[in-house]
Each structure stands twice: as C-alpha cells, then as structure tokens.
Design brief:
The chain contains 7 helices and 15 strands. 29% of the residues lie in helices and 32% in strands. α3 (65-72) packs antiparallel against α6.
Length: 249
C-alpha cells in the first residue's frame, strides 16, 4: 500500500512550516504532495494531485478553506486549522470534522492524525460534509467565485472577477477573460444562475457581461445600445429587453 498524501494550505509561512515539521515527526509516512499559501492555489493543487488528506486553514486569501473543502467533500479527509472560531468549531464537532486550533497543539494535531489514519486504514469513505460546509460558508457566499474550466490537458481555475463576459455557444458557454477564451460544457443559463446577479448582467439572450468589465455604453444611430469593454475589443449588443438595466447609467 502506498504512503498517504496530503496538502497543507496555510497563508502564514511560519505556521505552514510548523505544521509540515510537526507532521514529519508525528506521521513520517505521510507525503506532503503540495503546499499552498492561498485558497486558489490550494484548489489547483487539489485538482492536480488529488491528495487523500487536506490540512486547511479556514481564513485564506482568494478562497477560504471552507470553500476549498466544498470541492473536496467526500473525496479527501479534512482537517481544518482554525483560530478561536467557536461557531465553526461547534459545527465541526457536530459534523465529525477534524480540526486543530491555533496556536498549533501537538497533542491536538496528534489526535486528529490518529482519527485520519484510522479512516484511511479502514478504507472508510471520507465524510460528505457538504451541507455543514455550505452552512458555514453562509448565504452571502452562495454564488461562485471561480469556474473550473478545461484547457488543453489541464484544468484551470478562472476567478469570476477575471471574467469579462460569457456567451452562449449552442449547448455550451464561452467564457472570455482579458486574455483568454474557455469553453464550458454547461449552458449559459446554468452558469448564469450560479453567478452573483449584481455583478453579472444578462444583456442579450446569448450574452452575460461582468459589470466591472464594462468601459462604456453607447447608443447606435439606430437607437440600440452597445457595450464597450475595458479589456476586450468586442462590442456587445444589448437587446431591447435588457436596455432598462442601463437607464440610470
């Protein structure tokens, strides 16, 4: 049986090193396949290496450990690293999720390791704690902060903030950033429903634009509205149905 693999995601370099050193002493067989200093790189490492165990800081730049864990729920054993967040700790206790509080206690980390080892050795399926994680992430963060998109032979993470606009392409959706274009296997309607509606406006039955990416809106000599983007050369048509969105601009 091969040695188990793990990902450490912690934005504080000294604490990340402390966790790595403690794991080397307490669980020498464990192979650290990747480390990440923020949630985005943690998510990329999760997809690239498929680690069996995740040590996740709750509060990280980009994406929180909770948001990363939502992608790993049911696929990897989870151990959260948390400050004094009583609300989260109570939820973890109810959901049987392992956690270690800061500052790191070797005794508490050892306990979490033993629980994870037992699950791995008994081949117990990782807990599907998706509902607990959804509750913790909260209603304000229900909308996607990133899209997972195929690109050549890899999977890329595209932050929604970086999207300029999306366009229907038959049953697929083309996603345009400032410098790239990606194709999703979901319909525009399916993608739009997962995006923050205050940030992404439907301006045509086949087009959704990121408001933050709009440079200007002007009217053609025929009276129709068109959107000019800050970082893309395309001019996007606004259908009459959606023209009222811009009446106060």
């Amino acid at each position: 049986m091969s040695n188990p693999t793990a990902l450490i995601a912690e934005d504080e370099p000294l604490l990340r090193a402390e966790i790595r050193e403690a794991l080397a002493k307490l669980w020498p067989e464990l192979q650290i396949c990747a480390e990440a200093a923020d949630g985005i790189h943690a998510l990329q490492a999760l997809h690239q290496y498929s680690p069996q165990v995740l040590f996740l800081d709750i509060h990280m730049p980009g994406l929180s450990g909770l948001e990363v864990a939502q992608q790993a729920a049911g696929k990897a054993q989870l151990v959260f690293i948390t400050a004094n967040d009583q609300h989260a700790i109570e939820a973890f206790d109810r959901g049987a999720i392992d956690y270690v509080q800061k500052p790191i206690s070797t005794v508490r980390l050892s306990t979490a390791i033993e629980r994870v080892k037992q699950r791995l050795q008994s081949q117990t399926a990782p807990l599907d704690v998706a509902q607990v994680l959804r509750d913790l992430v909260g209603r304000n963060n229900e909308y996607l902060k990133w899209l997972t998109v195929p690109h050549a032979n890899e999977v890329r993470m595209v932050m929604t903030d970086d999207i300029c606009y999306l366009q229907a392409d038959n049953k697929y959706t083309s996603v345009f950033t400032a410098a790239s274009e990606f194709l999703l296997s979901s319909s525009l309607k399916q993608v739009r429903e997962k995006l923050e509606p205050r940030m992404f406006w439907q301006i045509h039955r086949s087009t959704v634009v990121n408001v933050a990416a709009v440079h200007s809106v002007h009217r053609t000599f025929r009276g129709a509205l068109e959107v000019k983007l800050k970082q893309r050369p395309e001019i996007l048509a606004v259908s009459a149905q959606y023209a009222p969105l811009f009446k106060h601009l």
